[in-house]
Write a structure and sequence with these properties.
CATH topology of chain A: Glutaconate Coenzyme A-transferase
Largest sheet of chain B: 10 strands, mixed
CATH superfamily of chain A: Glutaconate Coenzyme A-transferase
Distance between the termini of chain A: 41 Å
Number of strands of chain B: 13
CATH topology of chain B: Glutaconate Coenzyme A-transferase
CATH architecture of chain A: 3-Layer(aba) Sandwich
Mean pLDDT of chain B: 91
Structural class of chain B: alpha/beta
Shape of chain A: globular
Largest sheet of chain A: 9 strands, mixed
Order of helices and strands of chain B: HEHEEEEHEEEHEEEEEH
Distance between the termini of chain B: 9 Å
Oligomer: heterodimer
Family (chain A): Belongs to the 3-oxoacid CoA-transferase subunit A family.
Low-confidence stretches of chain B: 1-15
Keywords (chain A): Transferase
Mean pLDDT of chain A: 95
Largest interface: A-B, 56 and 47 residues
InterPro entries (chain A): 3-oxoacid_CoA-transf_A (IPR012792), CoA_trans_fam_I (IPR004165), CoA_transf_BS (IPR004163), NagB/RpiA_transferase-like (IPR037171)
Pfam families (chain A): CoA_trans (PF01144)
Number of strands of chain A: 12
Strand content of chain A: 25-35%
Strand order of the largest sheet of chain B: 1-13-12-11-9-6-2-3-4-5
Helix content of chain B: 10-25%
Protein name (chain A): 3-oxoadipate CoA-transferase subunit A
Number of domains of chain A: 1
Number of domains of chain B: 1
């Protein structure tokens, strides 16, 4: 993996994302959502995308805007239905989008496995539930587990707080969420950051995502949205 | 727990179930009852919705550390006004605060600490709980209802003790503590205790034990539930 490129525009940052790509999109609700990269992806025009993200969009911004633009064929997520997920809800009810529901911890661990070179793993989550259908069950030391496969992305679009010119990343509070895991699990990892600090400006002991996982970094104006209360 | 299951023995055992108060509890009072049972210094996850309110009844000196699955230990109360930070929310996406000693981590770590058995207690809401501790709380299964599981299945099998906080009956009066769940399951054999407005139940390998009642007699409870009570 060559060193990360620090780019000037989000349009450069999302260049090359092809139709039909699997794109891992960071964020838990709106915290950590890479709004600027998604807006650039909408301008870029790639379609038939499979989006892997915790939610399926909130309000009209970020992932919801990408869905509204008709670019997404399938959403793999843990929690689509929220008080403000009306864009997804309408597409789903009209049969215009596929949904694969994955328990939140499995979503994270399956991406972690992809990034860590694990072929598959046995996990106790969802045993005996409808989400176990079609999965191999293995009993280990008297407890049942399901065989879970990695989720790998062609691209990851994530948001971090600061980067250095190498692409080392630190995050801010619970906006960290899926970012560090997704960064490891995609062929090309694209990060929007609030700030690129000079080399040596990040404490190596405090780096959360080491630069080896990062391909493209683009600084953006800080932009936040707060939506109160999912159900 | 006695193995004598004659009616007389059951009745004698039943009469010992403590009646804590003489009226059904409000859900705020249920939250207080649960808070009372959480051990000092425990690591605890409070599910979205009603269980969130338990935090209001945990005195600071108890030293309980709250986990939120979106990547934090040491979560503080809901943020208001100028303290609202869009980068700091709970699992319900509500802005919250951090307490001294808080720690942040990514999602795979957050669920590893859950699945790995490091959380002491998790409190979840439920549509139904079976007498064997099966939990149904993620999906009504009705046509047109969009399935959304979030962290419910991971939490159900993760914490050392999984408590449920719910009303014992639906609005139409149907019991929610049942022999067998009819709603789609979240986890099997995972619930150890059920807190409701009229009684608290321990789900033991031997069966359902009534821990406390609130404004209801055991006979009345028995008549309204289709599970055997010990």
């Amino acid at each position: 993996m060559s060193r990360a490129a620090v780019l000037e525009s989000t349009d450069e940052a999302v260049a090359g994302i092809e139709d039909g790509s699997t794109v891992l999109v960071g964020g838990f609700g709106l915290a950590g959502m890479p709004f600027d990269l998604i807006d650039a992806l909408i301008r870029q025009g790639a379609k038939d995308l499979t989006i892997v993200s915790n939610n399926a969009g909130n309000g009209d911004v970020g992932l919801a805007a990408l869905l509204a633009a008709g670019r997404v064929r399938k959403v793999v997520c843990s929690f689509p239905r929220q008080v403000d997920s009306y864009v997804f809800d309408a597409l789903y009810r009209e049969g215009k989008i596929e949904l694969e529901v994955v328990p939140q911890g499995n979503l994270a661990e399956r991406m972690r496995a992809a990034g860590a070179g694990i072929g598959a793993f046995y996990c106790p989550t969802a045993v005996g539930t409808p989400l176990a259908e079609g999965k191999e069950v293995r009993t280990i030391d008297g407890r049942d587990y399901l065989l879970e496969y990695p989720i790998k992305g062609d691209y990851a679009l994530i948001s971090a707080y600061r980067s250095d010119p190498m692409g080392n990343l630190v995050y801010r509070k619970t906006a960290r969420n899926f970012g560090p895991v997704m960064a490891t699990a995609a062929t090309t990892t694209v990060v929007q950051v609030d700030e690129v600090v000079p080399l040596g400006g990040l404490d190596p002991e405090a780096v959360v995502t080491p630069s080896i996982y990062v391909d493209r970094v683009v600084p953006v104006e800080t932009r936040h949205y707060t939506v109160q209360g999912a159900r | 727990m006695t193995t004598d299951t004659t009616a007389a023995a059951r009745s004698a055992s039943a009469s010992r179930a403590p009646s804590a108060v003489d009226h059904p509890l409000s859900m705020a009072e249920v939250a207080a009852v649960i808070a009372r049972d959480i051990p000092a210094g425990a690591f605890v996850n409070l599910g979205i919705g009603r269980p969130t309110r338990i935090a209001d009844h945990l005195p600071e000196e108890l030293g309980v550390v709250l986990h939120t699955e979106n990547g934090m230990l040491g979560m503080g109360p809901k943020a208001e006004g100028a303290r609202i930070d869009p980068d700091l929310t709970n699992a319900g996406k509500v802005p919250v605060t951090e307490l001294p000693g808080a720690a942040y981590f990514h999602h795979a770590d957050s669920f590893a600490m859950m699945r790995g058995g490091h959380l002491d207690v998790c409190v979840l809401g439920a549509y139904q709980v079976s007498e064997r501790g099966d939990l149904a709380n993620w999906h009504t299964g009705e046509p047109g209802d969009i399935p959304a599981v979030g962290g419910a299945m991971d939490l159900a099998i993760g914490a050392k003790d999984v408590y449920v906080m719910m009303t014992l009956f639906t609005k139409s009066g149907a019991p929610k503590l049942v022999r067998q769940c009819t709603y789609p399951l979240t986890g099997i054999g995972c619930v150890s205790r059920v807190y409701t407005e009229v009684a608290t139940f321990d789900l033991l390998p031997q069966g359902v034990h009534v821990r406390e009642t609130y404004g209801i007699t055991l006979d009345e409870l028995r008549s309204r539930l289709d599970v055997e009570l010990h």
